[in-house]
User: Fold this.
Amino acid sequence: MTSDKKSLKTEDKKEKSKEDSKKPIAEDSSVKYLGFVLIRSIREAEPDAKYTAQSLRLTRKNSLVLVKASPSFKGMLKRLKDYGAFAEISEASYNKIQRKKEPSYSSDSVQVYRCSPPRGGFKKSIKLPSPKGILGRKSEEDFMNLVSRMI
Assistant:
């Protein structure tokens, strides 16, 4: 195989990964909020991930943050996908969390909850992304199952 064919294959792979990263997180109109649970410590994280976590007031493991769905917050959560689980949640799920626990920090756009580790433990690895692990993007059902065991 020539080097030209190899470079074409690597370029195709790069283009496919760029296309995958450009897929919208939420297109459904019922999705109004984004939820993120910090599972791994950000102590040894890359500087941009640390800054993003601090911007969202995620300073400890097992912290839950709820934000209104917007492109800027979606980008922030994508940056932190290697350190926790996130999902788009409906207003009903948002209200369920509000009824169960009071936020430790609240502003117009960000609400932070300090949670305990999930009862029964994590069902998958905390070091691997989905589907083998718990990190990364989840369905609303899986995310709410995790959160309900933490609250």
